[in-house]
Design goal:
Blueprint lengths: L17 H15 L13 H12 L16 H12 L1
Length: 86
């Protein structure tokens, strides 16, 4: 059988839109100041979660409140999945 590698890797540095990232970082820091650098809620930023729920619900049936988990990346998602299923 084929193997799916979940090993880490380094993206091509040219893939990063540096100018856009600079502009957006400055915008966030201007709007939120030091609050933007604090730890967020474990379950994810509430306005972002609400946005995702609303966007997803437009095309799909969506469950109740806490049925959405936002992870920091695939490794965290796989870790949580393993903890739930194993």
């Amino acid at each position: 059988p084929d193997i799916i590698s979940f090993a880490g890797g380094l993206p091509n540095p040219e893939a990063f839109p540096m100018e856009e990232l600079k502009e957006l970082t400055l915008e966030v820091l201007n709007d939120y100041g030091p609050l933007a650098l604090q730890y967020g809620a474990t379950e994810g930023v509430t306005p972002f979660r609400d946005y995702l729920k609303e966007a997803y619900a437009k095309e799909n049936e969506f469950g109740e409140g806490d049925e959405l988990i936002v992870t920091n990346g695939s490794q965290q998602a796989l870790d949580l999945l393993g903890k739930v299923l194993l």
